[in-house]
């Protein structure tokens, strides 16, 4: 069935290093992807999105890469800071005919070590 | 900055009891959602609501669940007879309109429901 999953449950990085969080999806009909950040005690917060007609999109300190051939999505965080510590989820949606829901992956816990 | 709010933050109830989880979406938003997250698992879609009716629901959203927008500000999720497996964090989300990207749903902080 459809699934969006993450490779690693926990990622530990040193402050200042770059972080890479990975996500695999299985629904080839997915054409829109979002990364969410969930801090402790809060709801998921939108970080960045990408459509399937792109393979890279950059935001402030974050970059999302999409490889449709292998159905893989990654979130790169440059110069990781303690405030980046959170759980990161990828989510997918079909923009046409996919209804209203977001389908989330399991989540990766990012821990930033000082 | 406007936020989605949810009350209570934590609800403990006995199996078989009814619970109502409350949400106040962002005021100019038109689409409303409930998701749940069982501890350690992924966030799962329950239901979406638009124009005073359910627009989509998942297989989780069975006859024990209902949603309501009783007034212009609140959006509620009712579970009629709670089961142990309903224990989870429940997130409300809202979205402004149907056009354009990003397709951004704004999430509330969640209500932790514990069924004993």
Separate helix tally of chain A: 0
Q: Which structural category fits the helices and strands of chain B?
A: mainly beta
Radius of gyration of chain B: 14 Å
How much helix, percentage-wise, in residues of chain B? under 10%
Give a topology summary:
The complex is a heterodimer of chains A (about 110) and B (about 120).
Chain A: E1 4-6, E2 10-14, E3 19-25, E4 32-38, E5 45-51, E6 56-58, E7 62-67, E8 72-77, E9 86-93, E10 103-104, E11 108-113
Chain B: E1 5-7, E2 10-13, E3 19-24, E4 31-37, E5 43-50, E6 53-57, E7 65-68, E8 75-79, E9 88-95, E10 106-107, E11 111-115
Parallel strand pairs in B: 2-11
Antiparallel strand pairs in B: 1-3, 3-8, 4-5, 4-9, 5-6, 7-8, 9-10, 9-11
Task: Label this structure with key terms.
heterodimer; A: 114 residues; mainly beta; globular; B: mainly beta; 7-stranded mixed beta sheet; 4-stranded antiparallel beta sheet; 11 strands
Description:
- By secondary structure, chain A is an all-beta fold.
- Chain A has no helices and 11 strands.
- Chain A has strands spanning 4-6, 10-14, 19-25, 32-38, 45-51, 56-58, 62-67, 72-77, 86-93, 103-104, 108-113.
- In chain A, the strands form 2 sheets. In chain A, strands 2, 4, 5, 9, 10 and 11 form a 6-stranded mixed sheet that branches.
- Chain A starts with a strand and ends with a strand.
- By secondary structure, chain B is mainly beta.
- In chain B, a hairpin with a 6-residue loop joins β7 and β8 (75-79).
- The radius of gyration of chain B is 14 Å and the shape is globular.
């Amino acid at each position: 069935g459809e699934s969006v999953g993450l490779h690693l449950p926990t990622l530990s990085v040193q402050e200042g290093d770059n972080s890479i969080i990975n996500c695999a999806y299985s629904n080839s009909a997915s054409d829109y992807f979002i990364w969410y950040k969930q801090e402790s005690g809060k709801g998921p917060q939108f970080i960045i999105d990408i459509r399937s007609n792109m393979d890279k999109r950059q935001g402030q300190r974050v970059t999302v890469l999409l490889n449709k051939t292998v159905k893989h999505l990654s979130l790169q965080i440059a110069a990781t800071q303690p405030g980046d510590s959170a759980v990161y989820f990828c989510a997918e949606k079909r923009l046409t005919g996919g209804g209203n829901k977001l389908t989330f992956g399991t989540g990766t816990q990012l821990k930033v070590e000082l | 900055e406007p936020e989605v709010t949810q009350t209570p933050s934590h609800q403990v109830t006995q199996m078989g009891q009814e619970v109502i989880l409350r949400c106040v979406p962002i005021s100019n938003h038109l689409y409303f959602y409930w998701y749940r997250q069982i501890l350690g698992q992924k966030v799962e879609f329950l239901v979406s609501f638009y124009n005073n009716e359910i627009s989509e629901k998942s297989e989780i959203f069975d006859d024990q669940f209902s949603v309501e927008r009783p007034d212009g500000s609140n959006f509620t999720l009712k579970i009629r007879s709670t089961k142990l497996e309903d224990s989870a964090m429940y997130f409300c989300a809202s979205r402004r309109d149907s056009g354009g990207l990003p397709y951004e749903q704004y999430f509330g902080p969640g209500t932790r429901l514990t069924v004993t």
